[in-house]
Structure formats: structure tokens, C-alpha cells
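Structure ticket #2291
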Amino acid sequence: MRQQSVLGKRCRVSLVMALAWCASLMAAISFAEDAGQDLKGPFYANLIEVFPGGKMMLHPRVYFEEGFPEKDYRLVLNLPWHIRLSPLQVVDTDDNAVVALQRLDSIAESSRKVVCNGARRIEFMFQPDLELAMGGAELAFCYRMTSDFAPKFTRYRPIMKFSGSYDWRIIEKEIYAPDWYLSMPHWYDAFLKYLPFGNLGKSDGNESSAKMEIKVIPLLVKWGQLDKGWSGGLFLRKMLIKDAATGQIVFDYKPETPVAFKFESGKLSAYWLTNANEKVTLAPGGKYLIQCEVRAENIQGPDMTCKERCATVPRYFRTMIFDVDPRAKFPEKMLWRIEDRRGRIYRSGELSLVPGVKPLAPKKLEASVWICESSLKNEIWRIQQLYLEKLRDWGLNAIEPEMKEPVYNAPLTDASLVMPIALEAKRLGLRVRSFLFFMYKAKNAENYLKVNPQFTAIDAQNRKTDLSTYGYPFICPTHCLEGEKHDIPAANTGAGQDNAWLGYYYQAIKKSVEINKLDGVFYDFEVSAAPYVKTRPGNKTRPANEPRKYTHACICERCRRAFQAYAGLDHVPSVEECCAEALYDKWVDFRCHQNAQLWQLTRQAAKAGNSKATFAIYSGGPGDYSRQAYGVDWGMAAPLIDFAMQRCEAVYPPQLTKNLEIALRAGLKENQTRPPVLIQLGVFPYINDFYVGNLDDANRHYRELPNIKNNIIRNVAESGSFGWSFNGIWGMDDQLIKPIREANALLAEYEDYFIKGRKLEDRVRILEKTGGVGAISWEQEGSVITFILNRSGNSQHVTLSDAKSAANVEISVPAHDCVVHQWNLPHRR
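Resolution: structure written out below.
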């Protein structure tokens, strides 16, 4: 993607100047695929593969630099006539899964017809609300969406931001209520074909029959991790919502005394602006005037400007979906420019639009996508289908949705367990492995413990691990796994499958696997084993004088009796004895052993539903920290799992894969096969510094996007992953199609080398190696292949040398690309 910086160039507010810009770029563009990417703009790719008759999805970054207009910033896309903006909208999936603040909605959007070099084209303008990119206190709306034709969900959206110091003033802003679901009835019947077991309603195809309701609860909020370092206070004495068309007041909040909203650094703060939990009803798509009377008292922090904020956290426009006419011909061009309302252009560039290519997916290696813990399930059915179609076009072969798990003790009907997205994925030829979440769902355990409070887990401080102490309740694991064996008096509760709690979820997992034709299940397992964690992430020992940080791990008398039997002790140890040095590690062993018992039961449940179903664990790497904090001992897991799952940001260091392989092998007998390791590629960042470590470096993920093809290949060829898994569907963008499709095609073509062959460490090398280029070689049955990876932004010409045959070969590698040379045969892409 070539760009030209025209900062400072003034353009008249006229169509003539826009057309001159359009003509100059179209005359200069070529369709070269090896140009280096320039990341100073909304797009990181050179080209996009497009399918006539399909849909094009774009998720541009809000690029900002010194001198850009903060109030009048506009992105203009100039597209071929046969590509039009679709009425389909992504509701929530394109925002971050952890902190919903990455997406900036538009203040205004518009389109117009233009003619460039005699060709009809169309321009779309998007004006993002840059005010919402900045830190500080914000007025947000908590949307509660209900519809006959889409899932119910809750969504937080920022409305206004407040910073600095000023006396009482009235601040106003006009907004549009969401209208995401208005056209849902046209697609609802397609959704119903997956629900043959229950009557969830039907559509008559008439939009006017759709019942949709939007309710909001206003609140003041400061995001903890994101707004770390901010201080000051905001005072509010009035908040008004008025229908902009009729002038009718729909909400009028006047507290008796002004609301005082004070900042605490690094902490989430929220104040609900509600009259007796009142919810405000808004009309979908309606225009409203928001009015706040506020006073600011020295609200300040480290990122007061849009430039500062965008430098630390990537911001994106909403995902744009375009309909591509079946008559469209490619190659073509998409032009873009950043301008202000007067037509002054600050930066511009273009992308090539080329015909889409049929994908080739690996048959044996994993090429999956983590869609669980995302908001995809909140979207209308056509959007969910579109995501699956796109993922298939990438050459992926499996999806990982969240299992639909009923609330404890509800009848296990087919309708309560069916997962339409799983069945649609199977129709598209994708495998489905489902994420198990039932241990973390507060309502499930809460319902069980209401009837059986005596089985509530008790932590090392003698506190019940309920909603008030840990955010969700835990059930004593010894009660579930060993029943009444360690109860005094015996409670006759049953153990394992015969336990009311575990038995219910055993049946739920078994039936779900059957009904949804699941190929496997897995846990993201993070259930503490230690009463307090002695080790820091990275297996670093905490200082001896550091205060204990207690966990939710149950250490009740029932568990301590079970521990006595496990450890062969002559008495039931006290809580402090279990926490002390002499028994601490043995206690962690005991609890990890119990977790392994749960995994064995889960594996049995999955295979009862499908004898070929796989079972996997995703968690932290091997070592004391994962054992203590997550309850995962990889050696204990090894005999029970079909593969071990890890996540990395770009490329998983080979040594970490080796460490995990060593830990897995230690738990196996000589004749047992080690389960493979599957590495998930965290393509887009969580913008919570718990995940990225330092918010100042969150943009590093964006800078890695041009190298995604290389990173996929390296995770398999260099790091030893059994394929790869994509994590980050909130960044769904057709800029990803070509590199991911090509990487999966290479894995499909050469997967037997990775499965049956071996890596050659020193046989093939690059002579006079240049920066950014590396080579990885594999051998299988005497045949040798070499992957040459170029991470640089320029094409590279290298000479490969085979030490065994003394043969040399010269190869050119395009920028940010990977080619394969098969020795004694012509090399190929």
C-alpha cells in the first residue's frame, strides 16, 4: 500500500479537487504485490482479495498524527461502482473482548457518486467520534437490547468524555440510537432451520412485524486499567435525554445533591445515573439530544489528547461491510484519503482489489479460530454466517465456539443445547471444538448452592467463595469428585457422574456433543490450586516478606480430610499447616490431581457423545505458577488430553514449546504418545495491560500484521505447533484474507513434513544473510524443503546453501512473505 503524505496541502471544498486527487492516484497505481507496507494510514495491506457476488469487510484503523484535525477528521473511501456499503452492521464483535473501547463509532456517514477518468465510482465518508478516543471520565450508555429476531445482550457505549477544569456548564451532544437489528426478519427463517426442537418464534418476512426494544441506563465510568494514572473529579447535577425530532424529554435525571465522581488511579469507577433503576426506552435509529450539566475539577492523566491515546492503544472505525456485485471485474483500485470538512487532505493512499482465490485448508494440522468469549453470538444470524464464510475463505478448518450450557437443573432438552453456529460450521465443512465454561458461570453454581449451601467452597481466610468475595461462587471440588466420602456425617451425595452437580454437566456435555456434532471440547482452565500463590508469572519466586494474596481455592475441612488421605498424613491438617512450607507443595499436588480427575470425567463425557471427540486444555505454561494459580500440572494432564493449547502474541519461542513438551512427556509412560502443542496466535491485542504488559506497546500487534503469514509459518515450522489457531476475530478484515489463505495453503501442501518428518537444524543456511530474512528446513523420507521468510518491508534476494549436497540456489522473496524451496525440484510459492 503506497501512500503520499500531503499534510499542509490545502484543497478547495469542491468535487473538482477530489476528482483531481482521484485521477492522480489512479494514474499512478500499479498492482505490484511485493511493495513494502507503510503503516501510517488506516490500512496495513497492499491489496485485498475480493469475490464477485460476495461481501468485502474492512476494519480500518483510526490513524492519527500531529496536525490532523480532531473535530473534523474524516476518512473517505473511493470505490468501484459495483461495490456498495451493505445495510448489514456488526453490533459488537469488532470491539475488544476485554475492554469495549477499541471501536469508535461515527458521528456522521455519507456517500456520493463521482466520476474518475471517465469511470463511475462511489465515495463513502466516515467521521469517527475522536472525542471518545481520549481518556478521562465518560458518560456511557448501558444498552439492553431485546428483539424477537436476535439474542438479548448488554452493551456499553461511550457518549461523552470529560477532562480538565471548568465551572458548571451545560454540555450537549446529538446521538443516534442503534438500529442494528431492524432488518433481521428477512434472515430469521434461515436461523430457525437449526432449531427444530423448540418453538422460538418465526418471521413472516415483514419488517414491521419485528418487535425490537432498546433500553439504556446512563452511567459515569472510568476504566481502571485503561485510564491508569488519571486523577481529579467530575460533578453532575443534571442529565437529560430528549427526542431531537419532537423535543419530548424521555429521561430527566436531577439528583438532590450533585453526583461527585472521584478518580482512583488504576481502578474501575462507575456511578449509575438512574431513578430507582429506571431504564430509558429509545427508538431504534432515533436521534436524541444528550445534555449534561457538569463541573470538572482538575481531571487529568497521561493521555489527554487524541494523538497520545492513539499512540498507546489502536483505535478502529466500525467494521464496514460492502456488497460486491456479481458483475464486478477485478483487478480494481480502492482509494482512500483523510481530510477535514473543508476538503483539506492530510494523507492519502490506495489498495489493489484483486480476484479472490479458492482456499486450501490443511487436512491434519489444526487451522482454527477462537470465537468463544467474543460477542459474535450477539449478532444477527446473517452476520454470524458471514463470519463463518470469511473464516472458511481464509483456509481455516475449525472453529472454537462456546458451548451452550443450561443453567443447573434446567431440563436438558435438544432446544436448550443446540448451537446453530456449530451446525452451520459443519455445513460449511469446518470442524467444531467447543469451549467449556460452566465452572465460571456464576448463575449455575449459585443455583446449586442455594439448595446446598453446605457445599460452598471455603478459602484460606475462612470465607465463602461467593459473589461478594470472588465475583462468582465456587463449589467444593471434593464434594463433587468424592461425594460423601469425607463428609461427617455422610451426606449421601454421590461422586463424579453420580454427583448431582457434576452428573448434570456430564450429561449436558455428552448431549451437546451429540446434538451439535462436535469434534471436541476444551477448557480454558484457570482454577487456583494453591490457597495463596507463592510464585509470580514466569515462575519467579515472590519475596518471603510479601503479604499473602489468597485465592478462591477451597480448603474446607472436607478438602483437608481428602488431603490427609492423599498425602498419607496421620491427622487432618489445619488450614495454616496446608499453607505452611512443609505441606504447601503437596497441597498443590493434591488440588492439581483433583483437577485432573475433573478433566478425565469431561473427556469421558465428550467421548460418550462422539467416540472420536478430542479433549484439550488451554492454560499457562509449565511450572509452579500455572500449578499454583491455574491448577494445571501439565504432566498430570498429558495422559488425558489430545493436545495442549498455548497463546502467543506473534511467534511462540521454540524453547517454550520444548519446555511444554518436556513437561507433557514427564507425565507419560514409555509407550504413550506425547500430545501435540497447539499455539494460538494473538493477532489483535487485548487493550488491558494485564494481557499486553504495557499499554505503551499495545500498537506492536498492529505493526506485526504485515508479517502474519510469516508468523503463522514460523509457529509451525520453527516453534513446533501442531498447526495454529487464530485469536482476534474482533479485527475481522479482508486485509487478512491473502496472507492467511496463503499460509494455510502452504501448511496443507507440506503438512506431512511437520507430522512425519523432522526439522533440520544446521543443514541449510543462507549465504551472506541480510536483515529480516531467515530459513527453516524440514526432511521427510529423504525429501528436504526450506521455508525462506522475509520479515522486511522490501523484496530480498538470497542464496541458499545445502551443506550435504554442496548445492546453492538463488531465491527472491517478496516483502513480508514466505516462499518454499524443495531441493532437486523447482522452488515454488
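Closing remark: The CA atoms of residues 484 and 490 lie 5 Å apart.
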